């Protein structure tokens, strides 16, 4: 592509690559020099030029800095107004508007994004996924550094998925991604709102600001439909903010009434060790469904997925049949044990008060004996949720063991003290070593009991003082149960 085709800039130079990272520059690249939280991309512009960059893009507000740094350079210096906001649009042009040629479904909410995206990718044909545990086709995921990658990477991923034959894409859209314009340039066909509760206040500051950021997804250009979890307390506010031209489908497990739009409802719900059975009501049709997943909150996720399938033209009986083949997502209500006189052990990513409450509350219906939980909280993150998670654990579990999560650069003692401040009776046991904590919980549980290892889910590391050491809750559990 020529620069004049990509940008409003008079140049016939042909470019072969766009990059935000000077280390990824190749011959005939355009280096996009964004201002970061700690460093400015312009400080790496000379390194990019040495590797073959033929043009440097920077924000028009940084012309003076660019002139100082690149005074002796002959490469093209291209100022772009609001560059950070417009990177997505530039990237989508470079990669040929890939999202315009697929059904991209954006999924936002505090919890459930990963489950919904993975379930959609399992249920839809030729479906790619972009999210927390990876991107690509469902059976061949590649690692992602963020739930929602940067705007340039998102477009490159979408182009790759399109070239690989994907007709649909299920994409997690985080609040950070929305706030930083990472999905700018993506054309979403549909959007899903899973739920809303406290998280990321260290970044957004207030719940109001956090919610306003989430709402940006429903104002995406050319969005056709929105699937809303009516059972969430913020659903009315979400619906009120959605433009009138967007079709709304509300899903409910409680016969919640929607202020507008169509409703997909689950009735006669039965939770058992083989999964969830229910009847779904849709446009005067009734269909019995069985889903091999645990936890009533997973039913909310499944209904969001089902509603999306229906809006993509799949008939109800066909969509319901596809649900019977869903598999648990790695680190999301992942089951171990439960047989041969062993307790049932659940590994889940629940790392917010709301998520922990839903996991423990749901497992009550599946547990004949005692319910135990092992969890901690991440360091250098929202401190206000720690006491709330302590209160939830004390209220819903019979036994609580508090341990390290990812302390990062905080002292474990300080984190755990914050968690304990939420307890009324302070009967929790503290074991800093996570493996020993999980081992004690399992060894002190009987057949019919349930042990929940919460907070890390799919993560295969533990971060302490800036160093990541290999650690997986799932592998730890399998080792203790003799399944490794």
Describe the main β-sheet briefly.
10 strands, mixed
Radius of gyration: 24 Å
- CATH topology (fold) name of the largest domain: UDP-N-acetylmuramoyl-L-alanine:D-glutamate ligase
Derived structural class:
alpha/beta
Our estimate of the beta-strand percent is 15-25%
CATH class of the largest domain, please? Answer: Alpha Beta
Question: What does this protein structure show overall?
Answer:
- By secondary structure, the chain is of the alpha/beta class.
- The protein is built from 17 helices and 22 strands.
- The strands form four sheets. The chain has a ten-stranded mixed beta sheet, with helices on both faces.
- Strand 6 (127-131) and strand 7 form a beta hairpin.
- Helix 14 (384-396) crosses helix 15 (412-420).
- The longest helix is centred in the middle third of the chain and has 16 residues, at 296-311.
